Amino acid sequence: MPLAISDWRLTVKTMDKYYLTKERFEELEKELDALKNEKRREVADRLKQAKEFGDLSENSEYTEAREEQSRVEIRISELDDIIKKAAIIKSEKKSASDSVFIGSTVTVKRDDSVFTYRIVGSNEAKPEEGRISNESPLGRAFLDRKVGEKVMVVTPGGKADYQIMKIE
What we know:
alpha/beta; five-stranded mixed beta sheet; three-stranded parallel beta sheet; elongated
């Protein structure tokens, strides 16, 4: 059973945790179930058919099926690890005076531009959709900060100053 957290400070930050929303956790469980119960069987059938063609050293169908089997087993292993080490992010409404945590939506101002980001685990980060990882330079800099605080962030593109306007 995954650990449910509402505040990132409740757990020791280690590489052994994967911070996930409940929705993403459920998606990964479905993917794992499909791989174990459908894809494995499908690949096994392909291997069986390919073996019937004879000489395995010259059998491209067999080679392709073995490669597919390897990819499926690697993904199953990855998903097993993620699910076992998952920490579910609870989306709770916090008052504006609270600090930023994993699961927060934070509105910040940089120069004359305003940006809104949701702080998520690295598995769910999609910067183009405004979801940034708690391990990214921005996400890490915003964690534990409060409304009104100014944050200087060092990114690969250089230094940038942000002011936290709102935390949800």
